[in-house]
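Checked the freezer inventory, then went back to the computational side. Two predictions to log before the end of the day. The first one is the construct we discussed on Monday; recording sequence and tokens without edits.
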Amino acid sequence: MIRFQSLFDFYIKSSIHVAFSVYALVRMTHFMFGLPYDEPMALFAFFGTIVGYNFVKYDALARAKKRMMRKELKLIALISFFSFLGVGFYFFKLQLVTQLMGVGVLILTMLYTLPFFPNRKNARNWAGVKIYIVALCWVGVTLLLPVVNAHLSLGTDFFIKCIQRFILIFNLILVFEIIDLANDDPHLKTVPQQIGVKQTKILGLLLLLPFYFLEFLKNNFVEKQLVVNLIMVVMLSLFIGFANQRRSKYYTSFWVESVPIIWWLLVVLL
């Protein structure tokens, strides 16, 4: 049991789970637009997520030479290295325009992590900005890049899906911010820090209304998608409603980050 627990923790800490969430959303984009499976795009997003998230989480620790890296961190670094090779391999299989946009997302990720300007903190520590940068990166990787790589026109349905995808990620991050409220630096000015936990939950629940009803405005309206989205609204409402600082770390790091995977599976199954 202890061995399984260690493996499970490593699976989460090494960002493999969140990478599967990104992969699921890319596959969902293919499904929604009736596109065939684009392996280079899906795996580029998967491996890129591992590299990006581990870079964000462990960059400062890796650069600090005050203590030796534990065995676990060395394994995470090894996985990140091979994922970096995977990113490079699939990057050159993408369309040129997708490559250019992918570089743009990379720059945004680096801006989020590294201080580009003298005497300024990185974007991760800019007051109130973190949630928007992360949500935009997810929308860019899981929706914009797959559509552009398939040479699809960016019509009304695409922009509606962008709004829905942004709301989904925004709400998932709100749950993280509620859980981490006690540990977050007050200068970050996260949403719960600015308006309180109760108002944050109300905001998240209100955002689920456009998330659901925007479906009716799509040109390619599919009734079954309403059922899937209703299940998603109920699930997200429960995650938001029951979020508090006493929740286990798995509440967000596993269950909340599983929401995109569940959404994709529901779309495929129904």
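The second is the one RB wanted added to the comparison set:
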Amino acid sequence: MTTSLALCFDAPLQSWGTRSRGIIRDTAREPTKSGVVGLLAAALGARRDDDETTQRLAALHLAIRVDREGILERDYHTTQNVPTTEGKGHRTVVSERYYLADALFLVVLEGDPDLLHQLHDRADRPHWPLFFGRRAFVPARPLLTEDALTAAPAAEVISTHRWLEADPDAIKAARLGADRVPLRTITDCEPAKHGAQPRHDHPVSIAQRTFRTRYVLNATTDLTDALIRAGESTSCS
């Protein structure tokens, strides 16, 4: 039996790094699989060196709908008195850190029913605090959406789940037809799928920071009247 779990990722700031070593800390424009797995592992209370749980979570089919595109922002950091690698004195380190402001995502996981039920039980009662890429970037509202667990495949949930937008002005504008554009989607797929694109963010071991490549399909789904009407009177709960 197909089981999917729908989650709401909403926060003033989010960061989903893909190449965050050295002085440049980047962010993808939507949650990475490694980031989603890390967050879910924290909810379950799995340790960083629990590779079995990491791989069980990473095996879930991931689909993301971008309900509000975030604004890409950059912080310029300077850190003084950093010890040199030779241990002879100190230096100042300059880094650039990117993040998304005001982004909103519908994150859908499909797969092992037992695991998804565990995640449903822990999503809003996490073992450890949850954050979106950096410890200061905490959720603005509960992760669980209404009817979070469904028997529908992720592809169906992505196209039929209510719009998660909670801003009355944005909802009104969309309802009237102003600035209504299709919602971007990013979905796990087979490598042979036409249009498949590689993403090197499928975690194998969080503790050892090892990853393998997965493939995703970038597409869009229409922001329909039904999705907007369903979102007008409900919120993530």
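For RB: The domain at 4-152+184-222 is CATH 3.30.70.2660 (Alpha-Beta Plaits). The first strand starts at residue 4 and ends at 10. Let me know if you want it refolded.
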